[in-house]
Amino acid sequence: AHLWRGVVEEYRERLPIGPGDPVITLGEGGTPLVPAPALSARTGAEVYLKVEGVNPTGSFKDRGMTMAMSKVAATDTEMVVCASTGNTSASAAAYAAHAGLGCAVVLPAGKIAAGKLAQAIVHGATLVAVDGNFDDCLRIVRTLAERYPVALVNSVNPFRLQGQKTAAFEVVDALGDAPDIHVLPVGNAGNISAYWMGYREYAADQDGLPARATRTPRMWGVQAEGAAPFVKGAPVEHPETVATAIRIGNPASWALAEAARDESGGWIDAVSDAQILDAQALLAREVGVFVEPASAASVAGLLQAAERGGVPAGARIVCTVTGNGLKDTATALGQVEIEPQVVAPDATDAARALGL
Ligand code: F0G
């Protein structure tokens, strides 16, 4: 039996980590690639979900955080800092706790899902809420990292993308080659950039390592309509969407994401909040995977492309669903009536209530 050791050990030869370097890991990565027949039927393609919500803190951020935190642990810096729409702060707080480092998180006030906020708090991070959006928070933490002895662990830290590229490796390792198309939500644009890096590296011989894929996929990025700077072609000053994780108007990895889109022959499009919530419900009810709204954006974008005739028949497609639905139950339950009927502790009463 093979015990999964986390992405740094599993892909060490393709990551910038030295033999004697500390590795801060919670066993991230090795996430399921789940066939989604309900989506295949709707799109005429062969669709899989890369379920990143099963990572230790419930999102893909853990892949980048293990690398970034390992690098900080090798220095004498004692505190990390990040801006976040919630998941980065949850991940940073957990990995900092494991490493014995301090963690400060700067968040847009009132716009963080309850589960994510709870994670930052229970892992012992120090929180600051900014009367502004994520873009303001990122500007602030960049300045803090310049002026004070704190290490920045947002995806502008290049080690974050190095760690996150391992998700593309896992997809190829599972399928035997790259898919035709890879779809994912785009917020600060680090993840689409990281996947593209991973796919390109796996398709080329590298430092004595043989290629593991014969090709690279088209990268399809999906934004929320109210926070779609790539679709607009310019930053959005007041981003707004139910998918708070991607409520971002001025993505840090702008150039890298455009390169991923253009070099791969892909696109970045937008979907409405209603489409996002519909896709979230469909994933929950017909695939059995509960994702947070931002994650459902990738699936909403795929379904929209299919409706417009833009999905090649039989194409092998992977959608990354980036975060666990349990992080934001309020938004999900806003869509569904929950009034379970209370009955006596008796099987006959329960059966009657269930209509059996
Ligand atoms: N999906 C989820 C669940 C996210 O939390 C994020 C980003 C994205 C998608 C977009 O990924 O930024 O690499 O394009 N969350 C960041 C955070 C901004 O602070 O947790 P991206």
From TrEMBL:
Family listed: Belongs to the threonine synthase family.
Keywords of this entry: Amino-acid biosynthesis, Lyase, Pyridoxal phosphate, Threonine biosynthesis
SUPFAM superfamilies from the UniProt entry: Tryptophan synthase beta subunit-like PLP-dependent enzymes
Pathway per the UniProt entry: Amino-acid biosynthesis; L-threonine biosynthesis; L-threonine from L-aspartate: step 5/5
Reaction catalysed by this enzyme: O-phospho-L-homoserine + H2O = L-threonine + phosphate
Keyword hit for Amino-acid biosynthesis: yes
Species for this entry: Georgenia faecalis
Superkingdom of this protein's organism: Bacteria
Cofactor entry: pyridoxal 5'-phosphate
Record-linked InterPro entries: Ser/Thr_Dehydratase, Ser/Thr_deHydtase_PyrdxlP-BS, Thr_synthase-like, Thr_Synthase_bac/arc, TrpB-like_PALP, TrpB-like_PALP_sf
Gene3D superfamilies (UniProt xref): 3.40.50.1100
Residues in Tryptophan synthase beta chain-like PALP domain copies: 24-323
Group of enzyme by EC: lyase
Record-given protein name: Threonine synthase
Entry's Gene Ontology molecular function annotations: threonine synthase activity
Functional summary from the UniProt entry: Catalyzes the gamma-elimination of phosphate from L-phosphohomoserine and the beta-addition of water to produce L-threonine.
